[in-house]
Amino acid sequence: MQSLPTRAGNSNQQQTQNTMDPAEQAILIAAQHAQLQQEGNPMAAIFPPTPIDAEVGVIPSEPPAGQPPIPPPAPGGGRVR
């Protein structure tokens, strides 16, 4: 039996697994957040806080009017056990 190529939108395709650990993810998020803040890009406001924000120069965002402030991440990466 011959197999035929499938279309890219096929729902049977296997999803790519994330191979980054949480620390690597935090580094990439914080670096991108800091870059957007430096550029004055308003998209920086939607980034979540990470444990390394202060180390890379991320300035905490002000919460939207009427919303409580976002607490900083818990020590140890914010994991609850």
What does this structure look like?
This protein is mainly α. It has a domain at 22-56. The chain is 27% helix and 0% strand. It contains 2 helices and no strands. It is elongated and about 60 Å long. 7% of the residues are buried.
In short:
With 81 residues, the protein is mainly alpha-helical.
Q: Summarize the helix and strand pattern as letters.
A: HH
Cα separation of the termini:
51 Å
Secondary-structure-derived class? mainly alpha
Number of helices: 2
Architecture blueprint of SSEs:
Blueprint lengths: L21 H18 L13 H4 L25
Keywords:
2 helices; mainly alpha; 81 residues; elongated
